[in-house]
Amino acid sequence: MWIYLITTNSLVGFFPLWPNVTYLSLSRNRFSGPIPLNIGHEMSNLQILGLSRNSLTGSVPPSLSKMKSLEALDLSRNYFSGNIPRDWTGLQDLEVIDFSNNNLSGEIPSSMCSQLPSLKWLRLSNNNLSGNLESSLQTCRNLSALDLTGNNFSGTIADCIGENLHTLSYLLLKANKFTGNIPHQLCHLSSLQVLDLSQNNISGSIPACLGGLKQMTTGDSLRSDRMMNLTSTNRVHIDLNVKGVEYEYIDHVIGLIKKFDLSSNNLWGEIPEEVKNLMALGSLNLSHNHLTGKIPEGIGSLHKLEALDLSSNHLWGLIPSDMTSMTSLSKLNLSFNNFSGPIPSANQFPTFDPSSFEGNSGLCGPPLPIQCSSTSPNDPDVKVEEDEEDKYGNLWFYASTALGFIVGFWVVFGSLVIKRSWRHAYFQFLDNMKDKLCFCFWK
To answer: Residue 369 sits in a domain of what CATH number?
Structure first.
């Protein structure tokens, strides 16, 4: 068995062919030109092929299907173009495919997953791919990670992702052209710990059932035997923006990340109360949508949350005081909403940058320079209470007036109906008054 690890150098030239090599990593060099079309025939014993971060061009050679022992294929961060090969027959052991950050186009072959029964890690981010995911992913039943970030996929998010991909832990569909609602089938993905649907055209409300995603609600990181075997045998990596900065996470570190990102879509309605159940989350981003209502009570139970972004929505009301118990929170953005009242003053809240709260005319208190009065006139809660008081005051006024009229009427006229002597006396009194008035008039 021959192993060649020649990474992070400045080697130049064309790709070399070395027969009998089983493990070849030439990542982070300056190799250029195409991969030889006959690589699958000349290097049929390869188990690991890592060529990321070079300047390779051309298409992905179809002869790769001849490498019957191949377990991991990483061609990321090059300049490959053309379509993804359609023939993957015979690659029974291939677990990792990473073609991210290239210029590939066309669709994901519909037969790809059915021909790769062991495929667990499919990363095709930042290419020019398009098409219908329903037919392409129907048979991808063993995937742990699906990263299609930064492509041109359109239509609705395929229901089959939630119905068939039960082992999925990482679902990244960021920066595509998806429309429609978030399918409720995603709630069936009990292993999901990274969900990124940001920068699409998704509409509708946030399904409340997403608050029950098991891996995001439990405190244990995903360390199943299946994932452990994958990351220990074949190096995998993924790019994630967790605190406003994008980092590349590799191997076992990936299992520690738990992220929920629906930002930059057209979502409306309120934030589901069930979001407070996602107690293992490290990052929650719902910014740049059309969400309304208040921040759910009990959100302070998200003690592991390090980044929370709810900016650029239509949220209102007070900032819940229990958010001060989120002591791991180091990045907060509540800007450009309709929040009002005092900013919580305990723990790290006064230390957040003032920009975290800008665009909320009713907020006051540190770190903003606006001091709080005893009651804030812009507080929607105060306005609601005043409106409620006015409404009920008017109701009581009209009700008491009507009741007084009815009672007074029946006290007077009811007694006349019941008491005959009173009735005669009353009408005799009226007759006397009439006679006196007439006498005065004629006089």
So the answer is: 3.80.10.10
